[in-house]
């Protein structure tokens, strides 16, 4: 049996189309090479888009904390349990959360106040 014949049989039986690497399956990037931040851009975009839908000016500090802790941090749980993303992805998510918490929005910059 030729390789193309085997691929056609698998496609017909499983009804799963053949894709090139990298691709996303159940929200998790599937890749063949080393881990790259670009493979995880979908989850950071999803979190950013969720923040754009919430007007931060209307939320109190406690409301922003609750939104970050219970809504936004739970979004990448499946991804983090299924694979090991690069540390830059997690740092980028924390950066997005901190920026929203400090400045009430994602697109504005603000000063990080410390003690």
3D structure, described in words:
This is Reverse transcriptase. It is elongated, with a radius of gyration of 19 Å. A two-stranded antiparallel ribbon has the order 1-2. With 115 residues, it is mainly alpha-helical. α2 packs parallel to α5. The protein has five helices and two strands, in the order αββαααα.
List keywords for this structure.
single chain, 115 residues, mainly alpha, two-stranded antiparallel ribbon, 5 helices, 2 strands, elongated, Reverse transcriptase
How many alpha or pi helices?
A: 5
How would you sum up the global shape? elongated
| Oligomerization | single chain
Mean pLDDT: 80
Radius of gyration, taken over Cα atoms and rounded to an integer in Å = 19 Å
H/E element string? Answer: HEEHHHH
Distance between the termini: 70 Å
Largest sheet: 2 strands, antiparallel
Strand order of the largest sheet: 1-2
Low-pLDDT ranges: none
Structural class call reads: mainly alpha
Residue share in β-strands: 5-15%
Helical percentage = 40-55%
Got a strand count? 2
Summarize the structure.
Helix content is 51%, strand content 5%. By secondary structure, the protein is mainly alpha-helical.
Fold topology:
Elements: H1 3-14, E1 23-25, E2 28-30, H2 41-52, H3 61-72, H4 77-82, H5 87-103
Antiparallel strand pairs: 1-2
Helix pairs in contact: 2-5
Protein name: Reverse transcriptase
């Amino acid at each position: 049996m030729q390789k193309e014949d085997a691929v056609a049989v698998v496609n017909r039986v499983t009804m799963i189309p053949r894709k090139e690497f990298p691709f996303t399956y159940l929200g998790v990037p599937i890749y063949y090479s080393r881990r790259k931040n670009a493979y995880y851009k979908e989850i950071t975009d999803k979190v950013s888009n969720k923040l754009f839908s919430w007007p931060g000016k209307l939320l109190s500090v406690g409301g922003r904390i609750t939104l970050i802790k219970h809504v936004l941090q739970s979004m990448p749980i499946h991804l983090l349990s299924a694979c090991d993303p690069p540390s830059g992805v997690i740092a980028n998510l924390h950066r997005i959360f901190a920026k929203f918490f400090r400045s009430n929005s994602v697109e504005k910059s603000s000063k990080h106040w410390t003690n």
